[in-house]
Design brief:
single chain, 364 residues, alpha/beta, 12 helices
């Protein structure tokens, strides 16, 4: 016991020496710093923005050069005016249902009506329009998308290659064509070359949009690629709508921002417009996609129609391949988005329309 007491006295004496005290203080300070740093990292992790769904299939490598705001792109000097380029493909179209076009020559119709599919919806049956975005870059994903039961509204990026061939194939398979126009998002994501940015001059916005509209034939109009910042800017949207109205084209608001000015500006300027109700694959897991498809059915039954947007991800395509053939037995019908534009259905797009179902904005 005496030996133990001596050891305890020795240890106590060691703990109280200045060297040991400073060592303990340093240890305590290191612990406090580690706790503070861990807390800060945890707060940043909790507040981090939701990661975007992968844009393309795994293994795809694409080098897309960033478009710098305010810097004009190089435009070909011999670019024909849009009315010479934006014509329906000359390839034969697949057999389509009876048309519901009004009386009058096709030339008297606006361009979006001339490029729209001839399609007669069944009266009294809720309608679902599926828009597939980001087409054209991933050829395998695009071809699998075009193999889905028609009609799909196929929205192609203007900077993809082989657009003439790919859009012609989409048209031949009974799908409708749309331009997926890159626009400025909130944050640092790159929408791709030729995007529309807030603060650009009217001339630059018109030039970029006109070039994109000439990227392929047969489109009915455009919807925004990203664009959570651009669509919320009234001046930018006004310029976009002036160009669309000039060429007789329509607008689909993807609603990547709940404060989008797109729907209101389109209505104000007389541009045909509808808006997205459901994003299918913001969470690209199979269970989440199935839940969104169930939500899509619910919205369609409640308001008589629903507009969904998806992407050519493997999971999304697998779920659509299984789900689309079941619509008829569920009392639902698949339609091109032009049917909703043609019927002037009062589509909901902003939280300000309190009489309609709420549309949840999804970040770019």
């Amino acid at each position: 016991m005496k030996g133990f007491s001596r050891l305890r006295r020795f240890w106590h004496k060691q703990k109280t020496t200045p060297r040991v005290v400073w060592l303990h203080r340093g240890r305590d300070l290191a612990i406090v710093l580690a706790v503070v740093i861990s807390y800060i990292q945890f707060v940043h992790w909790v507040k981090r923005p939701a990661p975007p769904a992968p844009a393309y299939e795994e293994g795809m490598t694409i080098d897309i050069e960033a478009a710098t705001p305010g810097v004009a792109l190089d435009f070909p000097s011999n670019l024909p005016p849009p009315h010479l380029l934006m014509q329906p493909p000359t390839s034969p179209f697949v057999e389509a249902p009876e048309t519901t076009e009004p009386e009058g020559s096709p030339d008297s119709l606006p361009l979006w009506r001339r490029n729209a599919l001839s399609f007669k919806p069944k009266p009294g049956m809720p309608m679902i329009a599926i828009i597939m975005d980001d087409l054209g870059l991933n050829h395998a994903g695009t071809m699998r998308t075009l193999a889905l039961p028609a009609p799909i509204t196929a929205s192609f990026l203007p900077y993809a290659d082989s657009l003439a061939r790919q859009t012609r194939q989409a048209h031949q398979r009974g799908h409708e064509l749309m331009l997926h126009m890159p626009m400025e998002p909130i944050g640092l994501q790159n929408p791709g070359p030729g995007a529309l940015y807030v603060g650009m001059s009217e001339q630059e916005l018109t030039k970029r949009l006109t070039l994109a509209l000439n990227s392929f034939n047969g489109m009915i109009g455009l919807n925004n690629h990203m664009g959570s910042r651009a669509t919320a800017d009234a001046a930018t949207m006004k310029s976009v709508m002036h160009t669309l109205k000039r060429y007789g084209l329509a607008f689909v608001d993807s609603v990547t921002n709940g404060n989008s000015a797109g729907l209101g500006m389109a209505r104000e300027l007389g541009v045909p417009v509808v808006a997205r109700d459901v994003f299918l694959d913001h969470d690209p897991s199979p269970l989440a996609i199935r839940m969104q498809l169930a939500m899509l059915e619910k919205v369609a039954r409640r308001q008589g129609y629903a507009v969904a947007i998806g992407h050519p991800y493997g999971q999304t395509l697998a779920e659509l391949e299984a789900w689309l053939p079941t619509l008829t037995q569920k009392g639902l019908q698949q339609v091109p988005v032009s049917v909703l534009l043609r019927q002037r259905t009062p589509i909901v797009a902003t939280p300000h329309n309190k009489s309609s179902a709420k549309v949840t904005p999804v970040a770019d």
